Amino acid sequence: MKILVSIILTFFLLHGFGQDKNPSPPYFKEARVIFAGKIKGYETKICPGEELLIAEFQMIAILKGEARYNLLAIMDKADTLNFEKEYLVYAVKNKDRDANGKRIGYIYYTIFRIVELEEDRENDELSEMVNYVRKKFFRSIKKPISESRLNCHCGI
Known about the structure:
This protein is α+β, with helices and mostly antiparallel strands and 156 residues long. Helix content is 17%, strand content 34%.
């Protein structure tokens, strides 16, 4: 009986380690953070040799990355985003360097893809991403941390 149980257990454990039957959606592997959120505001930061436009996003649902309340990202243009709309954002850690070779803003992310989410209709890219995250083992859709716990140093 023990042998039968161990064979069945081994089969179930090794079954998921073969060929991936559910390939990841486009841009999932490249992104460090994927989230749905709204834009809260813009800020201009002057660095030696260039001017950066920093956008602050309030996170609504986090599909990949750590749970946080908001995210600061370096943007190209501010006029393309609307404060009332929600967006699906793909971002990587900022690796830009200034003239002296120092990394510009280690807390900033660089957005490489942004998709506007429509309120009245289903978004195919978002639904594909949600289905992928729900099917993967050890992955889940995270809620952002609450604003009240944002500056609380209470072990989170």
